[in-house]
Amino acid sequence: MILICGLTFPRVNARKIPSAGIITQTGVNQTDQIWGAKNTSPIWHPLAVGETNILLIFCHLTPGFSRRLVNIIAMLNGVNVALGVSGSIAAVKVVELAHELRRQGATVRGVMTESAQGIIHPWAVEFATENPVVTDITGQVEHVELCGRSGWADVLLLAPATANTVGKIATAVDDTPVTTCATTALGADVPVVIAPAMHEPMYDHPGVLDAIETVESWGVTFVSPRIEEEKAKIATEDAIITAVASTAGSQPLAGQHIVVTAGATAESIDPIRVLTNRSSGRTGRAVARECRIRGAEVTLIHTGDDVHYAQTRSVESAAEMRSATFKSLDTGADALVCAAAISDYTVDTASEKLRSGEPRTLKLEPTEKLLDAVRNAYPELPIVGFKAETSGDEESMVAMAESLRNRIDLSFVVANNASVMGNTETRAILVDNSTTVVDDSKQVLGATIADRLAENIDDN
Description:
Layout: E1 2-10, E2 21-22, H1 31-35, E3 43-49, E4 52-60, H2 65-72, E5 80-85, H3 94-103, E6 107-112, H4 114-117, H5 122-129, H6 142-147, E7 155-161, H7 163-170, H8 177-187, E8 192-196, E9 198-199, H9 200-203, H10 206-217, E10 221-222, E11 226-228, E12 231-233, H11 237-248, E13 257-261, E14 267-268, E15 274-275, H12 282-293, E16 297-302, E17 311-314, H13 318-330, E18 335-338, E19 345-346, E20 365-366, H14 370-377, E21 383-389, H15 394-408, E22 412-417, E23 425-431, E24 435-441, H16 442-459
Helix pairs in contact: 3-5, 7-10, 11-12, 12-16
């Protein structure tokens, strides 16, 4: 069987596509790792139509092909990232950061200050990016080639950025390759993302705070550091990737406040034991992150810790989930994604530990259905529902999802078999006026839901 598909990229963000030929590199540098076997290597042919580059791919389908194809179309696919490294000890993390950017589909080229080269050798950055590293600005005007108006980079990422570097950028001092690229990018309207790293007293210096405020006012995205051990440590790779993806991509949810519920709730039996379920919350967290990448302000209500991509409200029981959801909606929300596996039953909580070794009967009382309560309170609010079933019969799952959608007037419903709860991979069916099957990672499902939600909000 032959697959013919077209991948389109806006010309302003398009990678430099070679003439027609066999794909041999896709970030992992092994064709067979991506496509399943070397004799199924796809043939690509680039076309240019108007303001869009189209990449036609011809290949034989192999088992598991669809999952590998989606992995190629990753969070940063087609994005060119100029990675500026300055002289913080956090520069030792740059190799892994560059690898992660590439795993997410980006092409990366490094730029280093002299101080950074004293911490990590340019050869290490060259190895991580598989591209030469700019260590000096020469007659080849590397800063313009990278970050000029017609330059290579779609995003300039400064990670780590020292107090010295941030201060220079704020005053247009460009005396290193990194600050020269920053001055050029800001003048050329190339998006800039900065991940600062320094000791905490330096981060709290009024001059540094003023510099950050100034640069932020120019539209630069700052990825907040982690304050630990009296240090403003560089943000996690996930937080940096999220910021780059959000900056580089379209923002169909910009200006929207999306409330997302995720994970299991738990009903206390006694101070030690609870009734709960197998939900991990991965899908809900993926939806929240993907909504943030698309420009939304996100509130995540779950049983877990704080996350970098949303304001979080931590809850345990179904009642707490309901209360937190209404508090978030009452502040003004544009949509609710109810991905949480909320307890259907609760029990009266014993004040002390129930002794073991004795037969017991627990009286289960039904909890109030959150979707019904929200719809009654907010008749016009776009709501995405989830429906987990155990039958394994997809026709039955779709029928149940359609019934839920029609009863509560949901935008769409995500139906899945309960067997995927707790897994990283999933098979889900998005049910609205038609059905869409996602058989992939929960990250991909989250992206699909965020895109569908953006379409629904836009239609309204």
